[in-house]
Amino acid sequence: MNKRVLKPIVLAVGMALGIGAAGAASNFDMSDLNKNVNPCQDFNGYVNAKWLAANPIPADRSSWGAFDKLAEDSLATQHQIVEDAAKNAASAKSGSIEQKIGWYYSSGMDAAAINKAGYDPIKPELAKIDALKSPGDIVAYLNDSFARGEGDLFNFGRAADYKHSETQIAYAFQGGLSLPTRDYYLKTDADSVKLRKAFTDHVAKMLELTGVPAAAAQKQASDVLAFETRLAKASLSPVDLRKPENQYHFVSVADADKVTPRFSWDDFIKAQGAHVTNGFSLSQPAFFAEVGKMLGDVPAAQWQAYLRYHAIEDASPVLSDAFQNAHFDFYGKTLIGQKEIKPRWKRVLGEINSDEHGMGMALGELYVAKEFPPEAKARAEVLVDNVRNALKARIENLDWMSAETKQKAIEKWNTFLPKIGYPDKWRDWSGLELTPDNYYANVAAATKFDYQYEMSKVGTPTDRHEWGMTPQTVNAYYNPTDNTINFPAAILQPPFFYANGDDAINYGGIGAVIGHESSHGYDDEGSQFDAQGNNVNWWTKADRDKFDARTQVLVNQFNGYSPLPGLHVNGQLTLGENIGDLGGLNAAYDALQVALKNNPKEAAEKIDGMTEDQRFFLNWARVWRENMRPELMKVLVNSNPHAPAEFRAIGAPSNMTAFASAFQCKAGDKMVRSGAQQVKIW
Ligand SMILES: [Zn+2]
């Protein structure tokens, strides 16, 4: 139950690594600085090298840095919450979220019962798959498994209509792959070939765990790879998927049926219980056309192998140890270099926090009550206002943009909705029935409950106050279709935010995050959505051309970064995030200058021998300190729109004259990009 159901398109600041709560003793420990490194040559090394050397990655993680540390701290808080909930579940109010979370957690911790059950919980599902004989049987199975929230092959969910953002519609989206991107199936270099071999070995192993004989398991594993390779060939790359026109393709149900003659969208949508009136987004028609063809020309046995493997893999995190360990061996150890499986309590919390079958928002309700004081929210609101105002002034003062486009940009600025901490209204969990002692049944119930919730939103008005991230997530996001910027409670703490800290540290941390999310509204992707969240052009041709010329320099800058031998950052894939960082850090810096003007005492004094401007950039680099296993680095560079942290620490500052001034860097220094190399966008 590891589904990747479509989420509304969101542009986050980090890599959604987890969750948070911390208390640092001081705002910035100057002994962290490596005085042997020249900040003008290697700012990341200057700020982070000592810390990186002294803080190896824990065995049960594949990266370790500021985000990861907060995520672990948050997990520790959540651990306490769920342990208490489990202890008190029997006496808790019947049907309360405390009771449901308590049962979810304690059933997941009951290793004896889970191991005793083996793979019994999925035997009925495997029997259904064994019985599929014809394309009609397969289609009926897909309709049914999707309706339970267990569908494979593609993603089906809801999001705002890109062209009428006030209403939510259904989206069918490419999916169905086990490996991170299409390239993993198609590249012929030795590493890629080796990984595919590891993958088919893993598939065979999973099948054998359910009693498939070894030879048959090998055959089915190669069928799975062949099947997914066809899907991969018809899939778009992560770079192409960033284009709004590749995310949205509105069709009537009748026209969708023409794309997939063997698959009735009318039947499918009815089975999902979604209220579709005029049509829906068949987002990547070429992908679905291929799926339609596969219903006609892929033998039933190959379909069965694919569906069987996915049924096992998806369920494996909640089955017996044999399955959980095998899942970890490939997806943890091989793919992302994690050394040890996480302790059970973290794995169960991972399920509870899952988007598709969790109760993350319910846990968030308990988390916020424990962790997030109203004073923190009040100070964060001031920071948000100041950074947003600075961004507005920057737009007004741009020397390259016409008054006409500026007016539209300001119109968009006016409709931004910042949300801080947690939702005003919590989700209703009544109707979700859990039991004290059956983990699999609980996860299945939560999966179905969540899917039905998503489907119930199709055809309803877009709610700008809904959150797409839980409060315990150490991250933030911008949603272009409702023009909201969102800052979960867990990121509003050190080192991002000190409720009583000096302005320089706060603006270099959370201030830059606020600027980053706001700037997403104007990055290469977000700027294709208007003030109302509709995907329409509001630019003059000349201004768009100037924008593209400027962003191309940023693409080139990041193309030049290489985290590992032979591995290069993809400047096009990471462009939106890099625009966000550059615009955001500039806006946060300007906001700091306004704050310092209002507080001349702080402006004049040095703290720990550092000026406020220096401290601003020090904290920016500090939040991007991160050790990462090379395996994970490869996956992220190939698939994730965020550049590796070490380059985020230096990428934006190296384009800022304010950075060079703060550290007295000169033209020619590595951290000083000047002339045609210096990127100025927002
Ligand atoms: Zn971002």
List keywords for this structure.
682 residues, mainly alpha, four-stranded mixed beta sheet, 10 strands, globular, binds zinc ion
The outline comes out as globular
Number of extended strands: 10
Small-molecule components bound: zinc ion
Intertermini distance: 42 Å
How much strand content do the residues show? 5-15%
The assigned structural class equals mainly alpha
Any idea what the radius of gyration is? 25 Å
Helix content: 40-55%
**What is the helix tally?**
28
Q: Strand order across the biggest sheet?
A: 1-8-9-7
Extract low-pLDDT stretches.
1-10, 15-25
Major beta sheet, specifics? Answer: 4 strands, mixed
Mean pLDDT: 94
Task: Please provide a written account of the structure.
The chain is mainly α. The chain is built from 28 helices and 10 strands. The chain has helices at residues 43-54, 66-88, 97-109, 111-117, 123-130, 135-147, 183-186, 190-209, 214-233, 238-241, 253-259, 265-272, 285-297, 300-315, 321-336, 344-352, 360-371, 374-397, 403-415, 439-456, 503-520, 541-559, 575-597, 600-604, 612-623, 630-639, 645-651, 657-662, and strands at 11-12, 63-65, 154-160, 168-174, 250-251, 280-282, 417-421, 477-479, 484-488, 626-628. Strand 8 (477-479) and strand 9 form a beta hairpin. Helix 3 (97-109) crosses helix 16. The longest helix is centred in the middle third of the chain and has 24 residues, at 374-397. The structure holds zinc ion. Zinc ion binds at residues 11-13, 516, 520, 577, 580. Residues 11-13, 516, 520, 577, 580 line the site of zinc ion (ZN).
